[in-house]
Amino acid sequence: MRFIKMFPVFLFVCMKLVLFNLKAYLDVEESVKLAAAIGKAKVDEEIVIAPSQLSLQAVSKKLRGKKVSLCAQDFSYSHSYGAHTGDVLLDDIKKIGCRYAMIGHSEVRHREAPRIGDGDELVSKKIVMCLEAGIVPILCFGETAKEKDSGKTYDVIRRQLESAFSGIDGEAEAEAVLAYEPVWAISSAAGSKGCDIGYVRRIEALARKTVKKSIGFRFVYGGSVDAGNISDYLSDGMIDGVLIGRAGASLSSMHSIFERLKKA
């Protein structure tokens, strides 16, 4: 492993993190409209929006001067400009204004042929790239239904977390967000529903024991989070925020979520 120059660990405050992953649900115009509505919201939580890659620049312009952070859904493992057809470069993401970048989302990890998913090794390399660029990585991790049913949840999560930060030397300090998204609980999975709070707490405790002490992180939960259960997760002292997918991709459902936040 090589030494990595890290920026200092941020002092984490009590502010909860609410991340909207818009995936590919909206086109550019729809993403901008949603971002405009989010930019007007008056809540106590830190709000982060991750629009589609093609919508990033337009959304960034709409959010200029607003207290909303921008996040990339993913980026390519290319370190410089050049002959990388179709790649999305981290440098461009940073120039657009992204403070965060998601890495290892299950829909990226488990891509099927002909597209190849990101394995543990590539996830680790992308985390290093983010930290060197001064972008906060949002590491998505979690077990599949098959892994859960076979009793391998803890083994899978330990492997994912240990591997993810294996490229960081010794006591090098870094800031990250750990987003626990069990694959069987995300809204796109058949028959999915949000995780029991006790279950999420056990995963949070495992993460605290597994991740290097020099990594300062916030632990967020994602998996069928919506207006009906968001308050339950945010009111828990062990959970630092939520990652919202489909439920945040329409103006009506997003407004319902913000109404819940105001009452929390």
What would you say this structure looks like, in words?
β6, α8 and β7 form a beta-alpha-beta unit. The protein has one domain: Aldolase class I (TIM Barrel, Alpha-Beta Barrel), CATH 3.20.20. The longest helix has 14 residues, at 120-133. It is globular and about 40 Å long. With 264 residues, it is α/β, with parallel strands linked by helices. It has 10 helices and 8 strands. The protein is 36% helix and 17% strand. α5 (120-133) packs across α7 (153-164) and α7 crosses α8 (197-210). It has an 8-stranded parallel β-barrel with strand order 1-2-3-4-5-6-7-8, surrounded by 6 helices.
Report the C-alpha radius of gyration, rounded: 17 Å
The main sheet comes to:
8 strands, parallel, barrel
The rounded distance between the terminal residues' Cα atoms is 44 Å
Query: How many alpha or pi helices?
Result: 10
Strand order across the biggest sheet? 1-2-3-4-5-6-7-8
Which consecutive residue ranges, at least 5 long each, have pLDDT under 50?
Answer: 1-12
What CATH architecture label applies? Alpha-Beta Barrel
